[in-house]
Design brief:
The complex is a heterodimer of chains A (about 280) and B (about 270).
Chain A lengths: L3 E8 L14 E8 L4 E5 L6 H8 L7 E6 L2 E2 L6 H7 E4 L12 H11 L4 H14 L15 H13 L5 E5 L7 H17 L3 E5 L3 H4 L4 E6 L2 E6 L1 H5 L2 H6 L6 H11 L11 H12 L1
Parallel strand pairs in A: 3-8, 3-9, 6-7, 7-8
Antiparallel strand pairs in A: 1-2, 1-4, 4-5, 9-10
Chain B lengths: L15 H4 L2 H15 L5 H18 L3 H9 L2 H12 L6 E5 L2 E4 H27 L2 H11 L10 H31 L9 H6 L2 H24 L18 H23 L5
Antiparallel strand pairs in B: 1-2
Helix pairs in contact in B: 2-6, 2-11, 3-6, 3-11, 5-6, 7-8, 8-10
Classes of the chains: A alpha/beta (about 280), B mainly alpha (about 270).
Chain lengths: ~280, ~270
Amino acid sequence: MEFISIDNISFSYSDSENSNLVKNAVDNFSLKIKKGEFIALLGHNGCGKSTVAKHLNAMLLPDSGKVYVDGDDTSDEDKTYDIRKKVGLVLQNPDNQLVASIVEEDVAFGPENLGVAPDVIRQRVDEALKTVDMYEYRTHAPYKLSGGQKQRVAIAGILAMQPQCIVLDEPTAMLDPNGRSEVMSTLLKLNKDKNMTVILITHYMEEAVLADRVIVMDEGRILIQGTPEEVFSQVELLKKHRLDVPQATELAYKLRGCGIKTGKIPLNDEDCVKMLEEVLK
Amino acid sequence: MIRDVAFGQFFPGKSIIHRVDPRAKIIMLTAFLIIIFCTFNYLSLLLVTLFTATFIALSGVPVKFYFKSLKVIVFIVLITSVLNMFYGTGDPIWEWGILKITLNGINRAIFITVRIICLILASSCLTFTTSPTDLTDALERLMKPLNKIHFPVHEIAMMMSLALRFVPTLLEETDKITQAQKARGADMESGNIFQRIKSFIPILIPLFVSAFRRAYDLATAMECRCYRGGNGRTRMKIIHMTKTDVISFCILGFIICGVVLCNIFVTAAI
């Protein structure tokens, strides 16, 4: 059975007075997510990605349709905390989601809220900080850390709650390239080593390429979904919706446009080098 | 500019004062502050001053930071001591119109000056040696009995610790906005005091807007991490009373006895 199942949800941010004027942020959206999957959710601003993310842990409830997490309906108020325990949400700005003035105390915030025993919290905090490679910084003040480090602390804060799924809403948008690769390698490690379900919302195509499944959203609906190869081979459709493709793919696409046979569409730098070798032979 | 204020800062360390239970420290500071204002003769004032100096020495925090914390209140100390000088009773030493200075007035001025300085130094000693988290944590535990009269102890402690957590973030933001406004040609250094205060409005408004946005984000993040108030919440760090705490309470008792004895056996100066 699927771990998360989104059935035909619609949601709009309207106030009650002029609800018919406001467009649905998410419109008849359905999606099934299996345990251990790494999903990248793409789309330009305002396409409803963040709204979908907030539906996954009952921060928002759908106007119509249902979201089930591990069999539990998110609109059931008694289940809200169980759902948030299972699905952790990391937000974009790391500065705004850290609650304590010391790294380890911030990571402890989640398990403290869950009422975990003090010695177990200690254990979970140490483990979570080691997973994101921030253990040496446990007694530091968050404001002295770099953006990537802060975001990893935020991820550790979610991990300490031992969720089964982690949803990240543009976690790398405010980071420099170094911070981005730090966060990405942490996520890949979590997904591969701990079989954690990861749902990553991003603007960066280079990050989306690393996922098992890519979902492109537009106007609150799914535009295309599939493996990175399947999605990024549809360059024209993506361009039409003002979305980029990875640079390597873009290059291959332009070469094709010039009438050069490129074979398989490359998604990363290595494949691109191979492709160019073939072309230049 | 704002960063220079030393009062309320924390200096990590391992001194004996750092190690005392934060709850014990708060209780002792409160008691000590009361004692400071119960000194009525020079002997007890000297005793209190000596103990303040000992605390400073034991805290292991560089003395210059204590002086920095005093810098902020120089003005207040001056005004209160000068005012007190003219409010004394008894025979005037010096008179000019309605203004007169008496021996009693001078004594009062000295007492108020020393008391305020001791007060600030002792409080600085607490904030310098206790991390903000420990401090709010201790306050929450100390005020727990107030829960019975429906006083929102946990909420207030949480607000305090969040406010402290965002001090550096908002300071950084203030600097950024100031620079951004300067880059747009804003003038903050010239003009009289009113013009200068007015020139701060373009900094304050964006700062407030961003603070609200941050607060909204923070609330979401806290809910995502299953925050639902103080009920059913556990803590990672448990604080225990240790031998150090017992000894420090004994020292406090000694100070109280000393001041009380002085007040009984030595004639009051004010």
